Amino acid sequence: MAILNTNQFKSGVKLLLDDDPCTILGADFVKPGKGQAFVKVRYRNLISGRVLERTFRSSETVESADVVENDMQYLYNDGEQWHFMDPSSYEQYAAGETAMADAKLWIKEEDSCFVTLFNNLPIAVAAPNFVNLLVTETDPGVRGDTSGGGSKPATLETGAVVRVPLFINEGELIKIDTRTAEYASRAKE
Amino acid sequence: MHLQSLETRIGDADPRTFYLQTSPEFAMKRLLAAGSGAIFQIGKAFREGESGRLHNPEFTLLEWYRVGWDHQALMNEIDDLLAYLLQEPAAERLTYAEIFRRHLAIDPHTTDAEQLLALLSERGVRLSADPLDRDVLLQLLMTHVIEPAMPRDRPTFVFDFPPAQAALARLRPGVTIVAERFEVYVRGVELANGYHELRDADEQRRRFTQDLHQRRHLGLPEVTVDAHLLAALEAGLPACAGVALGVDRLVMLALGVQHIDEVLSFPIDRA
């Protein structure tokens, strides 16, 4: 495991803090007038997702975290785990419920997802920012209403439920912004 | 003590180590001792390892000395300079004790390390290791809690520091001994640091020796004591006050930019 010096701290660097892998969001060099230098770090704990701050002495060293981030293809779900493949190495990885918490609502087989590996195990999976999904269940559309005023719930082919405009019908393909879990537009196949 | 110099070796036959100045202070004091009278310079200074939003290893300092002045008189002049350059209103002046009382309701001269540490954690400052040194804890409270809360509508001058943070300032005896040092903050940015200058060569030698001890203790590189400066002090430095002001930060404030890289042609990452 590599040892990092505080002057190597910059955003994107992965550290092992309290045994959890963390990614640095920002590192500020702080040096009071005539005093010791510190580095104030904002980071995200990649397991809990929480954003935290910590101050290091500028001479301190910290262990790096073996974290790899890669686009991977979603293959299938076996009822317990979600299986992905790294398209460059053809290596397969299985992600559990925790890592899939957000992504599982949105992804379909063959979608390309952003997978974070820690010690070679998936700890987080992000769906593509936008996905096109079929509406499988919603109240009948209101004819002529294309103004977008008002909304109704719609169930999608993955089981997710989102608010859609009144003019959307069952069987239509719609585009979802997975970061906000909101309807973006109608989609073409 | 917490400044690290960049060094270079010069001379073919008998190479000697020279240091790039971390500030022009020692050289200017030698001129003052030689009878220069009030002097200023704008020049480059170099500090190893300092790089960040407000730091670059090579930077520009404006440093000046006023013979016969004390730190209060020099603060008046800085007020005028900031009004002229940045259109700032007159600064609020607080002693180190007053600003700690205001923001943290403690007396920084007497509060012990344990209480300071508790206060830091109460204010949400998380440290990777507990630095139990009182002065380090005071400095962390200053940078992490007090500085961000300083008013933005006028500068803040903090003066009369604890003796342990005296650096090259003279001490003023009293119920609480304080160092006649000041720091200038503009919109939360530490812009300048000044002293009513220490003139006592013996006291200076003692502080140098103490610094060396601490450097050894902390495993920092050893430096040689500046014999020229001690000789100048022995010959007699006139009573004076001096201040160093970060010119790059001054330009940042004038332009309202957030990162020192925005006012440097070639910051360290692109040097």
Radius of gyration of chain A: 21 Å
**Whole-number tally of structural domains of chain B:** 1
Radius of gyration of chain B: 19 Å
Compute the number of helices of chain B: 8
Walkthrough of the structure:
The complex is a heterodimer of chains A (189) and B (271). Chain A has 189 residues and is mostly beta strands. Chain A is built from 1 helix and 16 strands. In chain A, the strands form 4 sheets. Chain A has a 5-stranded antiparallel sheet. In chain A, strands 14-13-12-15-16 form a 5-stranded antiparallel sheet, with no helix packed on it. In chain B, strands 3, 4, 5, 6, 7, 8, 9 and 10 form an 8-stranded mixed sheet that branches. In chain B, helix 6 runs antiparallel to helix 7. Chain B is globular, with a radius of gyration of 19 Å. Chain A binds chain B through residues 7, 27-40, 52-58, 60, 62, and chain B through 1-2, 49-55, 124-129, 131, 135-136, 139-140, 142-144, 165, 167, 183, 190, 193.
Task: Please sum up the structure shown.
Chain A has 189 residues and is mainly beta. Chain A has one helix at residues 97-100, and strands at 3-5, 14-17, 20-30, 38-45, 51-57, 61-63, 67-77, 82-85, 92-95, 112-118, 121-126, 130-138, 151-156, 161-165, 173-177, 182-186.
Structure characteristics:
heterodimer; A: mainly beta; five-stranded antiparallel β-sheet; 16 strands; elongated; B: alpha+beta; two-stranded antiparallel sheet; 10 strands; 36% helix
How are the SSEs ordered, and which strands pair?
The complex is a heterodimer of chains A (189) and B (271).
Chain A: E1 3-5, E2 14-17, E3 20-30, E4 38-45, E5 51-57, E6 61-63, E7 67-77, E8 82-85, E9 92-95, H1 97-100, E10 112-118, E11 121-126, E12 130-138, E13 151-156, E14 161-165, E15 173-177, E16 182-186
Antiparallel strand pairs in A: 1-6, 2-3, 3-4, 4-5, 7-8, 7-10, 8-9, 10-11, 12-13, 12-15, 13-14, 15-16
Chain B: E1 7-10, E2 16-19, H1 25-33, E3 39-46, E4 58-67, H2 71-86, E5 92-95, H3 96-104, H4 113-122, H5 134-149, E6 156-161, E7 171-172, E8 178-186, E9 189-196, H6 201-218, H7 227-236, E10 240-246, H8 247-255
